[in-house]
Amino acid sequence: MSQSVNQDQAKHAVSDSPDAPLVIAGVEYRSRLIVGSGKYRDFEQTKAATVASGAQMITVALRRTNLGQNPDESNLLDYLPPDEFVILPNTAGCYDAKSAVRTCHLARELLDGHSLVKLEVLGDQQTLYPDIAGTLEAAEILVRDGFDVMVYTSDDPVVALKLQAIGCCAVMPLAAPIGSGLGVCNPYNILTIVENAKVPIIVDAGVGTASDAAIAMELGCDGVLMNTAIAGAENPILMASAMRKAVEAGREAWLAGRIPRKRHASASSPIEGRIA
Q1: Coil, strand or helix at 22
Q2: Please, which residues bridge with residue 225 across strands?
Q3: Where are the beta strands (DSSP E) in the chain?
Q4: Cα–Cα distance between 10 and 272 in angstroms, integer?
Q5: Exposed, middle or buried: residue 146 (CB in 10 Å: 0-12, 13-18, 19+)?
Q6: 87: three-class secondary structure by DSSP
Q7: Residue 118 a catalytic site member
């Protein structure tokens, strides 16, 4: 099955301008690409790839990356300072709601009251699929505690609506399992989520190459988050640049409106009306 869906079906209300900002929790971002900070050779490469991607927001696994909790180690914030980039702490590695909530509170302390977090509650160590019951539980607690919650979830449209109703500021369905590089496996699920969204929908996990990012944006998503696809590439800096362009091109293509699919040819220069 083709993974590109006719975007005429998508009803998610967005600005018709390719330059319209992505708005999350009341803050505007010119870039619709969010990148991760893990799996790079070192912080120097992390910075170079982030700059090449054009991303303004970078997600950080608090359990794996030093943001100051380990004073004797190199600090990511020395390379990607918060006055230049929005640091999005995430709860990667948490397998229950309690540890995810605790991690978010630690992030708020380390980042001087920072309230924007990415919630992940994982349910399986092999696939890294989300534990939906734990995700819903943690989301309710964090929203009640005053956090702006961007939430990683499955591509289930019903779950997406529940997370939106809880008050999450962005819903982030997976395209495929984390780090798999399989691309958008269930485009019609993503399309259904987009159609019913009142908050930004950002595809998170499973992107492998630039065409995957473009497909996600052609479905009407508001943005794409990725880490492995860039950090794991043979040339992460070049791949970051490619992903930047793919996200921009995919959004423009969705806004432009693709032609309908037809079984037969439609000549670019039709015979009807030609000069004899």
Answers
A1: strand
A2: 34, 204
A3: 22-24, 27-29, 33-36, 57-61, 86-90, 116-119, 148-153, 170-173, 202-204, 223-226
A4: 33
A5: exposed
A6: strand
A7: yes
Determine which one of 98, 118, 162, 245 is catalytic: 118
Residue by residue, pLDDT tens for the chain (276 residues) are: 344 444 443 434 445 677 899 999 999 999 999 999 989 999 999 999 999 999 999 999 877 777 766 777 788 888 998 889 999 999 999 999 999 999 999 999 988 888 999 999 999 888 889 999 999 999 999 999 999 999 999 999 999 999 999 999 999 999 999 999 999 999 999 999 999 999 999 999 999 999 999 999 999 999 999 999 999 999 999 999 999 999 999 999 999 998 998 888 877 766 666 665
Backbone angle region of 184, left / alpha / beta, with phi > 0 → left and psi within -120 to 50 → alpha? beta
What gap in Å lies between CA 175 and CA 206, rounded to an integer? 5
CB 69 within 8 A of CB 89: no
Query: Rounded to an integer, what distance in angstroms lies between the CA atom of residue 21 and that of residue 53?
Result: 16
| Buried residues in 202-234 as b, exposed as e (16+ CB within 10 A) | bbbbbbbebbbbbbbbbbbbbbbbbbbbbbebe
- Give the C-alpha separation, 194 to 103, whole Å: 29
Q: Residue 206 in 3-state DSSP? A: coil
Widest distance between CA atoms in the chain:
83
Of 136, 177, 168, 172, the C-alpha closest to 34 is 172
